[in-house]
Every structure is written in structure tokens, then in C-alpha cells.
């Protein structure tokens, strides 16, 4: 078998992250033919096809995912070598990209980012906010290093294979109601109470399936009036008296962007809540900056 170079592995990582040879060449400041030739040579050296080509872009094959995991380990080993060389300074450094489920991000990330940046100013930290499936795909294709999302046990959610997860905390669902609505002063609010009233469904995948599943397990069908993928839109519509809603993340102020109040109520459903976890690739050795970020997350939710 021909030798495999670090440059080829770098190109493999870039194509997997960006989805095309053209985009990878642009990012790496080399010609498209250089990247294409390197990929062909790498596939020849390994004796496998690494990507499925289509008009929509390039996606890793199963063999490609294995090769990418090895490439990420090689990168991680080199990073650990650099970090070991810098150990005398006791500094954590390098690039770190974190993905976070959209409703968790504004509640958890600001505190974590501020503390992490204060402790490790030499780490170039960036983040993205997205739905669960997008985060999982980004993680498997090494577009992000860590993913913070919910632990969903739904048939509509593919199993998170190829990743390992660490539990952060569990958040039970709660109800949002208009302050002057019929449920605003009712004691012991249940899903049956909510099912009789208009519902504003938070529907960022797979959040909608999760909330509808709570009603389904109770043998109920809610009256969904509006669907939205925006956390803030849910709060705004409830504050306008247009329906009730379910969420898991809480804000300190119970007011919408229009400065209108709404009420929050605990739910009597006996649910342990929706777990929040932080995921990383199973086959990738964590470098110090990844573990440092996980440590700060654990402290933030303690």
C-alpha cells in the first residue's frame, strides 16, 4: 500500500466538513486539482471509496467515516504532542468549535463561553446553533468538535451511533400560559388541561415530536393552533394570549420581546424531564481544550 500523508488526511477532513472538493480547495488556498488528486491517491492507497459523489455534494461512505475517525485521531495526537511541548506554560490552546441545540444555547452557552474564555484565552472558540439532526451530522463529519443537545428517545430520531455522550442535567417540561388565560390560576396543571386549549407548539426538530409524544403517552391529542421553530416566538405568542405552550428551558424574566408578561406553571406529569448531554466522536481522542470545555459545562450546570 502506498504511503498516506498528513496532507491527504487534512484534505479528507476539509472535504468531509465542507461537502465538496471546490470548497475544500478554496479554504486551504490550493487548486481544485491538487485536492482532487490527493483524494484519488488516498482512495487508491487505502483501496476503498471514501465519498459518494452527487449533484448535492459529497458525503462520506462507511469506509470514509472510518478513515475520517483515524484522520481525526492523527490530528488529535499531533495536537497532544503540541500541547505536551507547551506543557511548561500550562496553557490550553488551539481551535474549538462547539455545536448547541438552539434553545439550550442562549440559556447555557453565554455563561460557559465567558468562563472558558477567561480560563483559556489562547483557545480560538467558535460555536454554531442548530437542530438535533444537524448537530449530529456536523459532529460525525467533524465540522464541530462537541455537540450539546437533548437526549431524545424518539422513533423519529436516529440513534447516535459513533459518538459518546456525557450527561449534564435533566430539565422537566413546564407550561407557559397567558397571564389572564383560563389556566393562569388553575392548581395542579396537567396535560389534559392543556389539551383542551389552543397550543403553541415549539417545533424545532425533534422538539415537536417530543412534546406531542408527551400528550400521546397520556392518550391525548392537543389542539395545535400554531407551530414555530423559534423559542422567542413561542413566548411572544403566549404573551399575546394566543395559546399555551410547553418548553424545557427557562428564562429569568417571564416577558416577551414586546415586554408583555406570561405565566409559567409546573406540570403534574411525573416526568423525569429531558436530559441534556454533550457528545463527541467515539473514535477520537479528546484533546485538552475539549475536556476543558466539558469541565466548564459541568460546573455551569452543577
Provide structural commentary.
This protein is an alpha/beta fold and 302 residues long. It folds into 3 domains: 1-90, Arc Repressor Mutant, subunit A; 91-170 and 275-301, D-Maltodextrin-Binding Protein, domain 2 (3-Layer(aba) Sandwich); 174-271, Periplasmic binding protein-like II (D-Maltodextrin-Binding Protein, domain 2, 3-Layer(aba) Sandwich), CATH 3.40.190.10. It has 10 helices and 12 strands. It has helices at residues 6-18, 21-28, 32-46, 62-85, 105-119, 132-140, 191-195, 207-217, 231-239, 288-301; strands at residues 51-54, 57-60, 94-101, 123-130, 146-150, 163-171, 174-177, 198-202, 223-228, 244-247, 263-266, 274-281. Strand 3 (94-101), helix 5 (105-119) and strand 4 (123-130) form a beta-alpha-beta unit. It is elongated and about 70 Å long. It starts with 5 loop residues before the first helix and ends with a helix.
Quick synopsis:
The protein has 302 residues and is an alpha/beta fold.
At CATH's second level, what is the architecture of the largest domain?
A: 3-Layer(aba) Sandwich
Q: What is the succession of H and E elements?
A: HHHEEHEHEHEEEHEHEHEEEH
Q: Which class best fits the helix and strand makeup?
A: alpha/beta
CATH topology of the largest domain: D-Maltodextrin-Binding Protein, domain 2
What is the rounded distance between the termini?
A: 51 Å
> How are the strands ordered across the major sheet?
4-3-5-12-6
C-alpha-based Rg, rounded = 23 Å
Can you identify the CATH superfamily of the largest domain?
Answer: Periplasmic binding protein-like II
Low-confidence stretches: none
Q: Helix coverage percent of residues?
A: 40-55%
- What is the CATH level 1 assignment of the largest domain? Alpha Beta
Shape: elongated
Mean pLDDT: 89
How many structural domains does the protein architecture include? 3
Q: How many β-strands, per DSSP? A: 12
Number of H- or I-type helical stretches: 10
Sheet with most strands: 5 strands, mixed
Strand composition percent? 15-25%
Keywords: Coiled coil, DNA-binding, Transcription, Transcription regulation
GO molecular function: DNA binding; DNA-binding transcription factor activity
Protein name: DNA-binding transcriptional LysR family regulator
Family: Belongs to the LysR transcriptional regulatory family.
